[in-house]
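Arginine/serine-rich coiled-coil protein 2-like
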Amino acid sequence: MFHKCCIFNCENNKDVKEKKFSLFLIPKDIKLRNKWLKIILKINGKVVKPTQRICEKHFILMIFKDLIHVG
Ligand SMILES: [Zn+2]
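Tokens:
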């Protein structure tokens, strides 16, 4: 079963036959999950399901944003 990045118009969704990137599940931890969903909402302009996945490109952004908020 193939999973896509939940980010709208993500370049990693275009070439679905050749999967050259890693996908990450949205965290189960409520606090972290809400943070991710908030960022995704900002990028996407729409709410995504917590069961959806995010590609490594956006995963890095999540970690990065998280670090900024902590600091
Ligand atoms: Zn993506």
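The mean pLDDT is 85.
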